[in-house]
Sequence to fold (394 residues):
Amino acid sequence: MTGTAPSIALPLPPATGGRREGDPPGRRSWVRPARPLALESGEALPGVELAYETWGRPAPDGSNAVLVLHALTGDSHVAGAAEPGHPTAGWWDALVGPGRALDTDRWFVVAPNVLGGCQGSTGPSSRRPDGTRWGGDFPYLTVRDQVAAEAALADALGIGRWAAVIGGSMGGMRALEWAVGRPERTGALLVLAAPAAASAEQIAWGALQISAIRSDPGWRGGHYHDAAPGEGPHRGLGLARRIAHVTYRSEPELAARFGGGPQPGEEPRLGGRYRVESYLDHHAAKLVRRFDAGSYVTLTGAMNGHDVGRGRGGVRRALRRASMPALIAGIGSDRLYPPAQQAELAALLPGADRLRLVESPHGHDGFLIETDQVGALVRELLPARPDGGRPPSP
Fold:
């Protein structure tokens, strides 16, 4: 008789899957600006720390520095193996290293963990200067606030102008904000699968995920970080991840991989799961052990508020500020940030000649998966030069 397969007992999920005090540092370094960070809201965030990783060596004038910006649940670990201090392998490992698209024999690659994140940078799970955790009192952040923190990192590293700023999804939002808000510090721009401003539908998807987390009894108003294992908002975070993951992949891919069939050994009419449910459960279970629900709420809120035209006379006028060489790429099968949004960017940015399209059956996640195509775009943006690849000094 076919029924529900027996479950395997797993350790209870932690209250937060983010980095905790005493965890191995891994490859991270930290900067700690001396002054509180002035936020767009008018508040000031004290005691900011920004974790980052680097590959390659900086030129004496810093002119070979490339800033790489991660997506929502990414971190500073762009390249390298999973190891103590780094719960996952590098998310763009195929792009960074000697002879690769971001050739570390030529370029000094810098990747920060975003402000509000949970893998070393200040976020809701961090302690305030008085020793208590921020939790639900962590201030609302915008993409501009996150870029302001990254500018403080550049200052600390002695980088007056990045040779290029590169990012996909949430990282693409920050890359675009760099280009519009700090064009004099952005030598070139690559934006992948990101819009000029979040649309109503994208805000709706984000709001559903935030609501899923806040509706979990373990949320406790955001003050759960010191709770016992199993008592944090892991159910809400897992549900948010399930919702998000459906938007990250394409319908044809899900149909081809899973169809409408049940998970082997399970029967939906007897309480079992469909194959696609098992897939979503798997990704939810992984995320709750490496991410923080408060950071997920904070970062999703920042993405929902993304609008480079806010306070700048609208998107069209704002994008005129960004005249540096630019490549704008969409993912052909992306239903979360469809290519039409990137086509608008490419049409309005003075330094972009046309939309580039990454062909992938994988939907939005194609910017992480199709590394050969993304690598070709990076090489186009940062071509080899007779001087060994170093861009001109600012």
